[in-house]
Every structure is written in C-alpha cells, then in structure tokens.
Amino acid sequence: MKRALITGIAGFVGSHLAELLLSKGDYEVYGIDMPKSKDGNILHIKNKIKFFEADIKDLPSMYELIKQIEPHYIFHLAAQPVVPYSYTAPHETLTTNIIGSLNILESIRKNNFDSVIHFAGTSEEYGLVKEEEIPIKENNPLRPQSPYSISKVAMSNLAVQYHRSYGLKTVITRAFNHIGPRGREIFVTSDFAKQISEIENGKKDSVIHVGNLEAKRDFTDVRDVVKAYLLSAEKCDYGEIYNICAGKSWRIGEMLDMLLKISFAKIKIEQDPTRLRQSDVPNIIGDFTKFKEKTGWCPEIPLETTMKDLLNYWRERI
Description:
Elements: E1 2-7, H1 12-24, E2 27-33, E3 50-53, H2 59-69, E4 73-76, H3 83-88, H4 90-111, E5 116-122, H5 147-166, E6 169-175, E7 177-179, H6 188-200, E8 207-210, E9 216-217, E10 219-221, H7 222-235, E11 240-244, E12 250-251, H8 252-261, E13 268-271, H9 289-295, H10 303-317
Parallel strand pairs: 1-2, 1-4, 2-3, 4-5, 5-6, 6-11, 7-10, 8-13
Antiparallel strand pairs: 9-12
Helix pairs in contact: 1-7, 2-4, 4-5, 6-8, 6-10
C-alpha cells in the first residue's frame, strides 16, 4: 500500500482527492487539517482515513507527523485560499501559504525521505494577463495582483528551488477555476447555487445578488482536477510546473444561466457593488498542452453536469 498524506484534507478539493485515492484500492490515506474541519467534507469517509489535527505553520509538529507517517506521496493543498480575504488578512495569508509550504519541504528534507510532493498552485499566480498572452502557458510572466497570489508564487518558487538545491521530488500544478459539490460559498458558482437554493426554499427574496458577470474564466470540475493532481504526482517531471485547466473560457453570466435553467424558481438578478473585485482580468484561458502531453489527461465532466451536482449539493444543505 502506498501512503498518501493530504494537507487540507477536509477542504473542498482535499475531500474529493481523498475519495479518489480511496477508490484506487492501493493507497493508505492520511490527512491533516485544523481541528474545526475534521467533521466537514470528510464525515462520510472518516473511518477509511487516518486523520490528524495539525497546523502546517508549526514546523516541529509537522516534522514529527511526517516522520511518523513516512509518506510516499504528499499532496499539499492546505492554504488560505480566499483572494478578497487576503487583502484584509495579508499576514495570515502569507504566513499560512509560504511558511506552511516551507515547513512541508523542510520536514521531508530533514527526515531524508524520498517522497513525491505535489504543490497545488493556482492560475492566480499569472495575475494581470495581457490579451496577446491568451491562452496562458506555464512560462507566461507572473504579475500577481493580491497577497494570495503573491503567496502562491512564493510557494511555487520554493518547491522548484528545493528540487534544484536538494533534489526533492516536487511537482507544481497551477489549476485554473475549479468548481463542483462542496465548493464554499465564497467562490462565485457556489455563491450562486447557495442563493438559488435559499430562494427555492423560501429563505431569501427572489433576487440573486451578483458581481461582475462579464468576466470570463476557464472552469474545470473539481473531480477532474483531483485526477490531474494524482497523475501529476505519478507521471510528471520533478521541479516542473503544469497548468490544469479546460483550455476555454465561459462568462460568469453563462455559469449563472446554467443554474437558473435547472431551478424551478423565478429569480431576478441584481448587481451588488460589494461583490466586485478590486482588480479583475476580463478573460482567462489556460493552455494545458504540457500536462496533456505528459499524462494524457483531459477534462471529462461537462460543466452542465457540474452545475447540476453543485446546485443539488446546496439544495441538500439548505
């Protein structure tokens, strides 16, 4: 059995990755998260995994935990992932995302383990992208526009440096927008789905509040994304960065339309200025050619299916 450690296992992506690894039948799944997270998205699999309460910012505890597990694979997903929150809490964002990542690397280096370490980067690292740079390749200039994106650039650079300096088996992916069941309401499609569910249940007036519906983003189902994460750890070159995306973009308004079409409620749309980002790039499209050539991966789940599953998830919760 291969031992896989997932940091942030109780999160949106971590829980889907845990399910995928368990379905393979040849992985022992270990996970760490903050104490308050342990009964969230992994409640249905808690008896199938080995869960540890831990703070990635605490180097001594991370060192001892990794020494105890001796993982073959580490999937480092734990982070402060919210762009707007990073403006109000930049210190927490940079400490969690940069120091937390450094602690993972140091724990492997000091334990002298041969683990493969996957780092979940983000398309936010590209930041301000020029029109002529679309679709975005891995070698595109980085112009991060938030404390969050700056922290993830630093994380990616650390992962590359530790491979070059110490030979650690690091792989970095930059996933573009990924969506699906369990997505937190702080993300746009989950926010839409939650509001629609509340309207359907009579818990909210028949008005959905939105931000910028004209921005275009590259969306992929989270269940396709975690398959890519596993493939990256199994097949990709160490010290390299790979885009994970669909290679096309949709308007935010199109995503809302998909949800409204499968809702039975009559809903009015109103823009809320507080939901607009301080800086927003009009169109984002990624190029995943490098990753596809290495692994054969392509997204498989239609976004219509993703949006239906997302709405049903919120209907169950509401």
